[in-house]
Design brief:
Layout: E1 12-13, E2 16-24, E3 27-33, H1 37-50, H2 80-83, H3 90-106, E4 110-116, E5 128-135, E6 138-145
Antiparallel strand pairs: 1-2, 2-3, 4-5, 5-6
Length: about 150
C-alpha cells in the first residue's frame, strides 16, 4: 500500500519494496525487493538524478527547443547529456564527474565522491562511475555506467 503522506513515503506489497534496477545499458525496470528501503531509495535517487536531463545553458545549446530539461524544474537532473554530445576527452570526463557530483549534492545526498571506475572503464567510448556518499545518514556505494 502506498502512503505518499508519510514522512518517508514507500510503496509496499506484502512486505516487499519496489526497486529500480538496470537491466541493460540505459534500460531500467521496477521489481519487488526485500532489501531495505534505504538501499532502494539511494539507487532510485542516483539513477533519477543521473538520467534526468537538466536544461542546457544557452551558450552550450543556442536553440531553446533543443535544450531539453523538465518544464516544471529545468535544473532537475544533470547536464551530462550535453557533455555526451562532444568528443570523450579528459576534460569532458572531468566535466561529467563534476556535474554528477553537483547534481547529487543539489538533491540531498551529502559527502559525495564521484570517480571513474577504473576496473570497468577499459572501454574508451564509455564512462563508468563509482559514487559514494551519505543519504539519510547511511553510507552508500553505487557503480553506474553512463
Amino acid at each position: 500500500m502506498c502512503n505518499p503522506a508519510a514522512a518517508r513515503p514507500a510503496c509496499r506489497s506484502e512486505g516487499f519494496m519496489l526497486k529500480l534496477i538496470q537491466i541493460d545499458n540505459s534500460v531500467f525496470d521496477l521489481v519487488f525487493d526485500e532489501a531495505s528501503a534505504d538501499d532502494a531509495a539511494i539507487q532510485t535517487v542516483v539513477y533519477a538524478v543521473l538520467f534526468t536531463d537538466a536544461e542546457a545553458p544557452e551558450n552550450r545549446v543556442p536553440d531553446r527547443f533543443e535544450r531539453r530539461g523538465w518544464w516544471a524544474e529545468p535544473e532537475a537532473g544533470t547536464g551530462i547529456w550535453h557533455v555526451r554530445r562532444q568528443p570523450l576527452s579528459q576534460s569532458a570526463r572531468r566535466e561529467a564527474l563534476f556535474m554528477v557530483e553537483q547534481a547529487l549534492l543539489d538533491h540531498g545526498v551529502s559527502a559525495v565522491t564521484v570517480t571513474e571506475d577504473p576496473v570497468v572503464a577499459g572501454n574508451v567510448s564509455g564512462v563508468f562511475l563509482r559514487i559514494s556518499g551519505l543519504h539519510n545518514g547511511r553510507q552508500f556505494n553505487v557503480s553506474v555506467p553512463l
